[in-house]
Amino acid sequence: MKRCPPETAGFSLVEVTLALGVAALCLITLLGLLPAGVKTQQTSIQQTTANQIISQIFSFLRADVRLPPGQLNKVCGDNNTCDWSRLHDHWRNRGLPDTLYFTNDAKQVGLNGAPPANAVFRATIAYRTPPTETTALATVRVSWPAPVDPDNGGVPAGSVMATIAVNR
Questions:
Q1: What is the DSSP letter of 41?
Q2: Helix (H, G, I), strand (E, B), or coil: what is residue 42?
Q3: Which pLDDT score, from 0 to 100, does residue 164 have?
Q4: Could you give the CA distance from residue 103 to residue 49 in angstroms, rounded to a whole number?
Q5: Nearest-CA neighbor of 58 among 110, 155, 123?
Q6: pLDDT at position 121, please?
Q7: How many other C-beta atoms can be found within 10 angstroms of the C-beta atom of residue 61?
Q8: What are phi and psi of 108, to 5 degrees?
Q9: How far, in Å, CA of 142 to CA of 157, rounded?
């Protein structure tokens, strides 16, 4: 009786080579998308921080309208980490925009003038004049990086803009 040699199961060299080629192509494609994903994440973080800054400014401007005399020093809390004092009561008296500078942590580091070295965001508050007896309007634009001034023809990497209407 004659026996047949057992067949060995496995992949041929051509099949293995093709599979490795497909896997390498997929891996290269994924690695190529990585920088785009990182850039999108960084932009998202900057936009979130810019929105936090706008919320902070809106809160102050709303509080400032209703702020009784002598209470201005309590707006920033006990540690007095911000300099909002020069913005107090600008709704009626100020026609020129104010520029505030913030760090990556949304902490204020400057007001008007040249941006400080650690400033990342530039917030411009444009008061719409004249305010009425019941409503005051302002437009707030936060742009980054801080040294780029969009009002003087600079092109920022990104910006967020919002308008606030405060009832008196």
A1: H
A2: helix
A3: 85
A4: 9
A5: 123
A6: 92
A7: 20
A8: -70, 135
A9: 11
